[in-house]
Amino acid sequence: MSDDGTQGLRRRNRGVATMLGGLVVGMVGLAFASVPLYRLFCDVTGFGGTPRVGLAGSSSGISDREIEVRFDSNVAAGLPWVFEAELRSVRVRLGEEVEAHYRVRNLSKTKTIGTSTFNVSPNSAGPHFVKVQCFCFTEQTLQPGEEAILPVRFYVEPEIGSDRDARDITAVTLSYTFFPAKTGAAAPAASAVAALGAK
Q1: CA-CA to 197 of 20 to 30 Å: which in 7, 12, 16, 174?
Q2: Do 102 and 177 belong together in one domain?
Q3: Contacts of 117 (CB under 8 A, 6+ apart)
Q4: Average pLDDT for residues 168-189, to the nearest whole number?
């Protein structure tokens, strides 16, 4: 092969390598951006059983129809916490804003930081379950033995009764799971919740 042909081949190879490198960098950037974008999409639409985030009070008023809301709590491996709902379930009227409480306690002898995710089941109830106030995705710091109350305010939209995929639902489960936080920087739990002090 001539020198001109070899140089042309090298230029094409460099061009392909540069294009592939740019593609890899773009995909890595998209992967990092996809988590917050997906979370925003789920918050707005209720996709995948994710409760929507909304303003206080239902714009549709309060219905006489009631629905049971059950509370589930989980702690992932690696976080030495006890986490539980104060009530196992409540009956609420559609459109009625309700406040429920979860209790969390650090069982370890060191400061620990956790953050929670949530979902609603069945999935078809997600678009109609609206969180007004929540502790999800906020890092919570607990000192050794510290206990705190974590409030969540929500309502179930009356429109659930006219949604053919959700109108027959009589019970909804709001589930939270706490995970060890990936960063060390966090506001004290007392700034986000009512701290009860060490036990």
Answers
A1: 174
A2: yes
A3: 136, 137, 176, 177, 179
A4: 78
Indicate the length of the chain as a whole number.
199
42 has pLDDT over 80: no
**Are residues 109 and 17 part of one domain?**
no
The Cα–Cα gap between 188 and 199 comes to 17
Single pTM value for the model:
0.65
Number of independent structural domains in the chain:
2
Residue 99 phi/psi, 5-degree rounding, is -115, 130
Residues linked to residue 117 through DSSP beta bridges, in sequence order: 177
Contacts of 138 (CB under 8 A, 6+ apart): 115, 116, 187, 192
Average pLDDT over residues 109-129: 94
> Nearest 5°: phi and psi at 162?
-105, 5
